[in-house]
Amino acid sequence: MTSKHQFAGKCKRVKLSDICVKGKSSLRQKDIANDGPYAVYGASGIVGSTSCFQNAKPYVAVVKDGAGVGRANACNAETSVLGTMQALIPKEGVDCRYLLHLVRSMRLGEDFSGSTIPHIYFRDYGKTLVPFPDMSGQRQIVEALDDIEKQRLTATKQIDRLDSLVKSRFVEMFGDFACYETKPLIKCVDCIEAGKSPKCLAFSRKMAEPGVLKLSAISSGVYCENENKALPRSVSLTIDKVVHANDILLSRKNTPELVGRSVLVKHTDGNIMFPDIIFRMHPLSPINAMYLSYLLAGPLLHSIQSLAHGSAKSMSNIPKSELAKLSIPIPALNLQNEFANFASQVDKSRFVAQQQIEKLQLLYDSLAQEYFGE
């Protein structure tokens, strides 16, 4: 490959704020009335609609607090974003897709303020010097990175189909749960415990060095152990807060749309703790861990999120005492095990697709560094 300056055409370095401006982002989840044709974006994608829109042009939305902080996505014209997002509107002569890839390359979530809930602000990262090629160079870069994005989207859709298959099987096997005995959650697990949040470094751990999970490690519904912060050498792991296989992790505190999200840890490289804004549970007999994890992440998610409250404008908190009372339906163990076996078989195909996504991400990161690095 030729050098990035040759590939990108004429290029200069400018502040990010020189090529984009802040758009409006003041909506709250409760403000969404679903009374019109204009989409509203949140951290997880489109979360509803309104009768009017805030941003007239295509733009880039960046998660500015909570899980996934720093993650950037493209948004269509005549749409809005929740207050947990920041809309970045490209100026004249700036390709919106170029702005998207540029902002992603900045890895804004790796350095943030706030001891528990991360926050980033345009007034800070807008001062960052970034490469700004002419339109020809922008389009060449966009073409190369968009091609990888399309391949990654294909693999992601395959995973979505597999996930839908498992969810459909779950509903098919267990129905509406009306015929099953129920118990409060605290009677179905050994305990509901919060983790610990020591002061961490601003970057991820290397290999299996000590680290602490970020909220984004569980917010997608799949356990992502690479979403973590490294521990300083001066800080030791708290052994009883180390993550193990078959742990069920649930976000205790997050934005309203992501609080209460949970995952089953199927594998861990070890030496990693869960923070105090995540709960951990282990099911007791006769509860299968796979069954309970799908129950919490699917049919009971809305009930779990309804338990959340808090004084902060954008963050919600689930009290342990309220979560402990959550009613859990308990089908026969052999039925739970049958579902778990089915889900495990589907997981094998999911793993192959996930490996493809990870390879494409490495390629994307390598090219982004070539185009946007110093």
Describe this structure in words.
With 374 residues, this protein is α+β, with helices and mostly antiparallel strands. The chain has two domains: 4-8 and 15-133, Alpha-Beta Complex (Adenine-n6-DNA-methyltransferase TaqI, Chain A, domain 2); 181-330, DNA methylase specificity domains (Adenine-n6-DNA-methyltransferase TaqI, Chain A, domain 2). 31% of the residues lie in helices and 20% in strands. It is built from eight helices and 20 strands. It has helices spanning 4-8, 96-105, 122-125, 135-174, 289-297, 301-305, 320-323, 333-372, and strands at 11-15, 20-22, 38-42, 45-50, 59-63, 72-75, 80-81, 85-90, 129-133, 181-184, 193-194, 211-213, 228-230, 248-251, 253-254, 262-264, 272-273, 278-281, 316-317, 327-330. The strands form seven sheets. The protein has a four-stranded antiparallel sheet with strand order 2-8-5-6, with helices on one face. Helix 4 packs antiparallel against helix 8 (333-372). The model is unreliable at 1-8 (pLDDT under 50).
